[in-house]
Amino acid sequence: xxxxxxxxxxGFPLAFTLGWLASRLDLRQLRIENRQAPKAYFKGLNFLxxxxxxxxxxxFIEAVQNDPDTSELHFALGNxxxxxxxxxxxxxxxxxxxxxGDLTQHERERAQHALALDFLKxxxxxxxxxxxxxxxxxxxxxxxxxxxxxxxERSRDWANATEIAARLDSSSHGSFSTRQxxxxxxxxxxxxxxxxxxxxxxxxxxxxxxxxxxxxxLIDLAKLQNQLGQSHEALQTxxxxxxxxxxxxxxxxxxxxxIAQSSGEQQATLALLKASYAQTPSIDLIEAIVKLEKEPETxxxxxxxxxxxxxxxxxxxxxxxxxxxxxxxHHALVQRAMDQATKPLMRYRCAACGFEATQHFWHCPGxxxxxxxxxxxxxxx
Length: 381
Known about the structure:
- The chain is mostly helical.
- It is built from 18 helices and three strands.
- It has helices at 6-49, 53-66, 71-83, 87-99, 105-122, 125-133, 141-154, 158-169, 177-193, 197-210, 215-227, 231-244, 249-263, 266-279, 283-292, 296-309, 313-321, 331-342; strands at 346-349, 356-357, 378-379.
- The protein has a three-stranded antiparallel beta sheet, with no helix packed on it.
- The N and C termini lie far apart (118 Å).
């Protein structure tokens, strides 16, 4: 039986025509999809620039549906969810990215970092810590360590905070020695609370060695030495403070006056306080000077000297307390009213966030900044 080539000759044009039509249909569909994805993407960007986040999210969701393999769209969508506080949706987007097998190493690390930020913003500190720990030896390592440091500070995990700060200290983010000294001071406070004063003294000595120019380790060490009856050692510690961080003397002025009285060093300490006041006037220094002056009238005159330099209702109230009034039997009532009025005037204010308090904080309870409070009380009328 002979093969009929007629059918072959007829079939070639038919096959070519069908193939051509199929390719045209595929190209048309591809063009439609390619037009839809960029259009939705740019529409989302336009909404984002106009601060219309709801519409931007809708546009990015449409773009992701049209082009589910584009990782950049997922990152944009996840970040938008996080900014809006929709952390659960942000986590789902970034976890979906992490589950994909076609991501490059850099994209996978980027998704891991984004996921850690989702957990951190949501307040899921345990999950954030675990996610951040996985970023060691990646381009996001330094950012992850800073975030971990924030977590450990918030949870008062000073041991882990010390470990992370030591790693950051050797990086390009500057010195963390003062921060590490604060962590040691916090650990010393915990040791004192459990009655282990020897460990606390050793820890504070480490803090002083870690940051010799820092005020807190010296002040905390002097306080503990004074509590243990080591007046001479406490005085020597505060003398180091005047040399290393003289601006912090107002903060320790009351403690210094008490130690001077118990150690018999009133005159030398009084001279030191007067010299410090001449350089930096402060009501804290005035009160310490008044405590050490032997003559009551001489002591009262320091309030007048302060009033000559600064308008101070507190100083005026303190001076009036020792003055004889024409109606002396009303003096107690007047004095009580003035003390009540001046009490809220003396406060410390965080330079970072403006949080005000009647006591000094090394670690601001408002913004978590360290060393953001002035070393002297401010008085605002």
